[in-house]
Write a structure and sequence with these properties.
Elements lengths: L2 H29 L10 H4 L2 H25 L4 E3 L2 H6 L2 E7 L3 H4 L3 H12 L4 E10 L8 E9 L8 H15 L9 H4 L2 E9 L3 E3 L7 H4 L4 E5 L3 H6 L1 H11 L6 E9 L9 E9 L5 H13 L9 H4 L3 E5 L1 H8 L36 H15 L1
Antiparallel strand pairs: 1-3, 2-4, 2-5, 3-4, 6-8, 7-9, 7-10, 8-9
The protein binds 2-acetamido-2-deoxy-beta-D-glucopyranose (8 copies).
């Protein structure tokens, strides 16, 4: 539990003891006269009422302890309602190096922190689950959050969704990082996207502006996740260059898509474009098209044991045409297909910080109330 909570509880208890202490000493005379007198008179002054009050106080104390224990020291999992999980069409994951029991009381704070980073009008951020990993309490916690429409009945509009997609991909590529309340949460790591309605396309290392000038020439499917592809990206590019038999003045650029919007689940579609310092003449294009389609056994040069089998090789209609062209003819200039420019981030901010959870308040109030009832 957080330091704040401990302090809060401590103060409340002191407060309560002060109040209760004076209250009971003032009224105890009425309940059982002589209770507070010397030991030698204890036996004959002892009344049933005294004993009864003592017994009740003890049982309240004990039940209080047992009520607190399972809730605040053993709670290592949190799961949102299924209804909320199902309506979160955008879901992402990160890891916090704190035990879940220390994080669960601050879920609203965490939602607020994430919202300040990626939130947009008419959306809200909900923590969907917090599961502690590993055996001991010193392990990390896996956090899954979702972005939901607000109100839930109106789907997130396409413009917001595209801004959200950009900022979530930036987080995944560590081009930006989640800034959380460090004193409570520490640093977030291992950011992954689990689900994004409409899919995600990640452009590793290479500049996004490249895709404004060049058309995708071919694509193929690999049974890997986006994260696995990025882990092995330099090997992937070297092998692909080799497989395409590119010369030193040619290069290949790729972008990687998962149609379900996950960076952890296979498969991926790799969309690729070849560029040359010297320009690609129709003859070279035809040669490339032949290399790409002609040697499935060579797996496009990719190591089968790392990347698996290349499937579904598909040429763009432009490259496909060069394959069937009998006489070399001037190729149409590739035109930009998609605009990848980044829309500006929304300045929208959450209106008010949410107060931290006060899990002990209700217990303290219950004890106070019982205490008063007993003294009446
Ligand atoms: C985000 O964090 C990672 C790992 O700590 C770091 O390498 C990267 O430079 C950070 N990105 C930004 C934009 O600060
Ligand atoms: C969190 O990250 C910041 C900057 O990367 C670093 O200065 C700080 O020590 C980190 N805190 C923890 C608890 O890892
Ligand atoms: C893809 O790989 C996963 C394991 O990563 C495997 O379970 C699945 O059967 C594979 N799918 C295909 C179509 O090869
Ligand atoms: C490829 O990535 C996986 C993890 O996804 C890693 O275990 C493996 O070592 C990488 N292979 C190479 C050749 O980098
Ligand atoms: C690879 O390209 C070189 C020229 O760059 C060419 O001589 C060679 O025949 C090509 N090999 C294949 C298998 O296409
Ligand atoms: C393919 O990758 C595996 C595992 O990384 C490695 O042992 C093997 O030598 C590689 N094969 C080639 C042809 O590079
Ligand atoms: C080329 O186009 C034809 C139809 O125009 C199609 O059937 C074929 O699959 C395409 N080839 C590739 C490799 O994309
Ligand atoms: C792969 O290429 C084919 C042909 O150009 C296209 O129809 C298909 O949409 C592409 N797939 C992806 C995921 O880009």
């Amino acid at each position: 539990m957080g330091k704040l909570d401990k302090q809060y509880l401590h103060q409340e208890q002191i407060h309560d003891i002060e109040n209760g202490g004076s209250g009971s000493s003032g009224e105890s005379g009425l309940l059982c006269p002589g209770c507070s007198m010397g030991l030698q008179r204890f036996a004959n002054q002892f009344t049933f009422k005294c004993f009864f009050v003592l017994l009740l106080s003890l049982s309240v104390l004990l039940s209080g302890i047992f009520w607190v224990l399972p809730r605040y020291t053993i709670q290592t999992r949190f799961d949102a309602k299924d209804e909320i999980k199902l309506s979160a069409t955008v879901q992402a994951y990160f890891r916090l190096v704190k035990p879940a029991s220390q994080l669960i009381p601050y879920i609203e704070r965490l939602e607020y922190d994430i919202y300040s980073e990626i939130g947009l009008p008419n959306t809200k951020v909900a923590v969907l689950s917090m599961h502690q990993s590993g055996a001991s309490e010193s392990e990390w916690t896996d956090v899954v959050f979702g972005v939901l429409p607000d109100p839930m009945t109106v789907p997130i509009n396409p413009v917001s969704l595209s801004v959200l997609r950009s900022s979530i991909i930036e987080l995944f590529l560590q081009q930006s990082n989640l800034t959380l309340t460090t004193s409570v949460f520490g640093n977030a790591s291992s950011f992954e996207i689990l689900k994004f309605h409409g899919g995600i396309t990640v452009i590793p290392v290479q500049s996004a502006s490249f895709w404004q000038k060049h058309e995708i020439m071919f694509n193929f499917t690999l049974n890997n996740s986006v994260s696995e592809m990025l882990d092995n990206f330099s090997a992937f590019k070297d092998e692909l260059k080799y497989g395409l038999n590119l010369s030193s003045y040619e290069n290949v650029y790729v972008q990687i898509t998962n149609i379900h919007g996950s960076t952890v689940d296979p498969p991926v579609v790799v969309q690729a474009s070849v560029v040359s310092d010297e320009g690609l003449l129709p003859q070279r294009l035809k040669q490339l098209a032949q290399t790409i389609t002609g040697s499935p056994a060579k797996n496009l040069g990719l190591n089968n044991s790392v990347f698996g089998k290349v499937k579904g090789i598909s040429l763009s209609s432009f490259l496909n045409r060069t394959l069937h062209a009998t006489t070399p003819s001037p190729s149409p200039a590739p035109s930009p297909q998609t605009d990848y420019t980044e829309p500006p981030k929304s300045p929208y901010a959450h209106p008010l910080p949410l107060p931290p959870h006060q899990p002990f308040k209700s217990l303290v109030l219950t004890v106070k109330c019982l205490h008063r009832c007993l003294l009446l």
